[in-house]
Amino acid sequence: MDIKQLxxxxxxxxxxxxxxxxxxxxxxQPAVSRHLKLLEEDxxxxxxxxxxxxxELTEAGxxxxxxxxxxxxxxxxxxxxxxxxxxxxxxxxxIGLLPSTSGLLAGALVSAVKARYPAIRxxxxxxxxxxxxxxxxxxxxDAALLYNPKTTPxxxxxxxxxxxxxxxxxxxxxxxxxxxxxxxxxxxxxxILTSAPHGIRxxxxxxxxxxxxxxxxxxxxxxxxxxxxxxxxGHGFTILPAIAVNEDVTRGLLRTAPLCxxxxxxxxxxxxxxxxxxxxxxxxxxxxxxxxxxxxxxRGDWPSARWLGE
Length: 310
Hints:
Elements (H helix, E strand, L loop, with lengths): L2 H13 L2 H8 L3 H15 L4 E4 L2 E4 L1 H23 L9 E7 L1 H18 L3 E7 L2 H10 L4 E5 L7 E15 L11 E2 L7 E5 L4 H13 L4 E6 L2 H9 L5 E4 H9 L4 E6 L4 E9 L6 H20 L5 E3 L3
Parallel strand pairs: 3-4, 3-5, 7-11, 8-9
Antiparallel strand pairs: 1-2, 5-12, 6-10, 6-11, 6-12, 6-13
Keywords: Activator, DNA-binding, Transcription, Transcription regulation
Organism: Trinickia violacea
Family: Belongs to the LysR transcriptional regulatory family.
């Protein structure tokens, strides 16, 4: 088993075709087929079902693909560390962003990395805090933004900003930014929430325990876009930060009001792994991410946010 065989495995798994995999890898088709054959002989079982609809992974193939992807990511990180001191910063940096922040930060981060470190290959992964933390611990992302994280033996966290949460309703609702909604009033409305135990859902459940309020959960989803669509269509209300709905409010698709009694706030932190060395490319990319977040807050592009970082 060697690196070329693993790269061929991933290319065929992603494209579903030996021909397209060969084009992606810039090698001839027989070479890809040979790599797969040698790999299957080494493993001792078939990795693909070769059918009329293309190459489909077997159960063994799915297992090997998961480990191969992680192994190649670690090799990419090692390669970026082993370079002359005067070499241009290069390598792969996989950054995890929260759905509510990705629209504001993704483009700015790509532009900043391209301008400052053009040899860094940036990968942006978007997910809820619970998923991002698991991916960070497993090595699938190098750094991630998380809600209210606590430093653990596997993760170190630097709190960067604090922002208020808002009630979000359909355009037919009477929500007004100048009229805060008491938390207890949420019990009167059907609520569209993220699935437990992620981010804002955890904050809401803690607030419910503190106040004795019971929410009427009409639907749960792991997609913020679905969450906002259901609210816009009149299926209920939700709780989100202003940054997540700013454009929708401007377009008249949603209405918002601040929460009170109690106010709900979330803290966003940059989380890094304690269990592995951080590559130069990752350190450079995360420094730019922090810079772009601070600029967004100071410029007023991040509504209701207060900068807490240095």
